[in-house]
């Protein structure tokens, strides 16, 4: 959580280095300068004013309820729900590997298949129900240039399609600036899983694609993608998920690197938070607008964020209430807590990298993951508020590398490191409860909980997927439910 290769394109992520970031932030060449945008506005160009409308959002949430968190640590399914001294997990034997770094993974909607994405331009499909056997290998056999795959998704409903994004490089041209083959415009590729061929391409990003998701909004189908070019793009698709109806960029003008997106719960998928540069940015998906920026989450960049259902929230609130009662000015604080409790909100976790001032990719400022509380506006035209609740760190937690993804089952955060480890933080206590170490001493890129089986998958630059389960678990006796669905936030 292999591939034959006709080229030597798997060298970039095998080297530990912080991903390039402009010293002075500037937009991609084709993006208008923000001063010019302001000049146009000053000349009377009308721009649609976007405001939060609580009644409209409430109706959207009622008409299009979330499907997130169908599975988490407290459900009746056999997901891994505790990792501590009383609940040990260990790696099991499996053959999931590649000849180059595995940059990310994706589970099928029913949880029976695992896809791995490699930077030698391959996506492989593994059968979780049948000893993790390789069942498909997807490569664009007609691509003349160098493909690198960074991300992808099984397409909802059909599961006959796989949408993949990454980097496309000129096989015959070298870039001294990147110390790599010259980058070309990077298409999204849609594969048919039966024929293992590319049946559609979505053109629009000029640099590597870092995240792709399938989205339903008002019953319509969309992909949303983020890129190193600084743009977040939405693709309106027909019912077959392969025919493009139209596409558009989120109106931004300031972002250099857009990493991941996560949709705000209970808003009908109208809003999402994106990890961009060193910030978190809130966008209106329907109107393609940047609404707010929550600045300086990390000193270098914020590259992963997702909403979670925090299962121990009640215990946390009880702790907070007890603390407040002991403080002198408790009346004002209790009033504020009561006021906050009446507002809609959601929990969000993020991770990022700090500015390197020490060799070997380690910063003197400790790496952290952060739990945030996003509070929704109560009134029309109001602003969202983002409150930092907790930071999770440890003196040995080093994660100063691009591109690393964290995950959560609602009770724990799994946070990969640049030394082949996965740190396990208890969200309620903030304590480090375990360190999983089965990869080689280089970056772990992605980690995923299985929704209904006691399995964790991790992948990294060593070219391997490690599969963890509870020690002494007899997986053959676990009931399988193949009709369950899930949506990753």
Protein topology:
Blueprint: H1 34-42, H2 54-63, E1 89-92, E2 102-107, E3 113-118, E4 122-127, E5 133-138, E6 146-154, E7 161-175, E8 180-183, E9 186-192, E10 197-205, E11 209-217, E12 220-227, E13 232-237, E14 244-249, E15 258-263, E16 271-276, E17 279-284, E18 289-294, E19 301-308, H3 313-326, H4 330-341, E20 345-353, E21 369-375, E22 385-392, E23 407-408, E24 412-416, E25 421-426, E26 432-437, E27 444-449, E28 456-460, E29 465-470
Helix pairs in contact: 3-4
The best one-word shape is globular
Pick out the low-confidence regions: 1-45, 474-486
Q: Main beta sheet, described?
A: 5 strands, antiparallel
Number of helical runs?
Answer: 4
Q: Return the structural class.
A: mainly beta
CA-atom Rg in angstroms: 22 Å
Helix content: under 10%
Strand content: 35-45%
Number of strands: 29
Q: Please state the average pLDDT score.
A: 85
The CA-CA distance between the termini, in Å, is 19 Å
